[in-house]
Each structure stands twice: as C-alpha cells, then as structure tokens.
Write a structure and sequence with these properties.
- This protein is of the alpha+beta class.
- The strands form 2 sheets. The chain has a 3-stranded antiparallel sheet. A 3-stranded mixed sheet has the order 5-4-6, with no helix packed on it.
- β4 and β5 form a beta hairpin.
- α1 crosses α2.
- The protein is flat.
- Bound molecules: zinc ion (2 copies).
- The site of one zinc ion (ZN) has 7 residues, from α4.
C-alpha cells in the first residue's frame, strides 16, 4: 500500500472508531498506534476525506470543528458542559432545503445543532449538589 493511502486509511478508521471527534482528538488517537504520523498529516487527510465525502465535517459555532463518520445528513446535540457531540435519532427534514430564497442562491443543505447537557454531565452535577 502506498504511504499516502495507508495514512488516509488510518485517519479514516480513527474517525470511524471515534465517530464524532475534533482534529486534535483524532490526531491523539492515531498517534497512540502510529507515532510517526504528524498532526499536519492528520489534518490534511481529514480535509481530503471530507472533500471525497467519506466523512463529514461539522462546523462548530464555538470551539473546534468536529469530524463525523456518518455522511448522510443528520442533526446533532452538543453538550454545553463537556462539548461532546451526539447524533439526534430524528428524521432529517430535507424539505427545509426548499425554503424560498433569493433567486440565484442555491441551497445545498442545512445544519441544526441542539444544545443541552448530556446524561453523564447531568449525573455529575447531581452528585455535586448532594
Ligand atoms: Zn456532557
Ligand atoms: Zn453525527
């Protein structure tokens, strides 16, 4: 296998294992088993994989962007305490893409990010109160 192909495969399988992770988290995961792979290599391959549509890229409004192993459109929940991203088991509303917009503007998709506190952080909070 070519070196580039191998590195891309390693990065892809890291995203598939972690499912939702930032570039830094993916690099840390990859470096644990392949210490020779630099941060720049991981970042470059994440860019290539999202361009190829093999992974998707979640642009965060605050904090680091996330990479997602699921490529079909879906919604996300983000915990405001720990920052973790979860999938929302809810139908994607494709018809929302047909909103009336300026002629000449093409809508290619939409994203929804729900905010809240995850079960783990809720448990930790309760423990602190008691
Ligand atoms: Zn949390
Ligand atoms: Zn997702």
């Amino acid at each position: 296998m070519q070196r580039n192909t191998f590195q891309r495969q390693v990065v892809l399988s890291a995203v598939q294992t972690l499912c939702h992770a930032t570039a830094d988290e993916i690099h840390r995961f990859v470096a644990a088993s392949h210490p020779g792979i630099s941060k720049a290599t991981v970042y470059r391959n994440l860019g290539l994989l999202s361009e190829n549509g093999q992974i998707s890229h979640i642009e965060a409004t605050s904090g680091a962007d996330y990479f997602d192993c699921t490529t079909s459109p879906h919604y996300h929940l983000q915990c405001t305490e720990c920052g973790k991203i979860f999938d929302v088991p809810f139908l994607y509303l494709g018809e929302l893409n047909h909103i009336p917009v300026d002629p000449g503007f093409t809508v290619t998709g939409h994203t929804v990010l729900f905010k809240g506190v995850c079960a783990l952080c809720n448990n930790n909070k309760e423990r602190k109160i008691k």
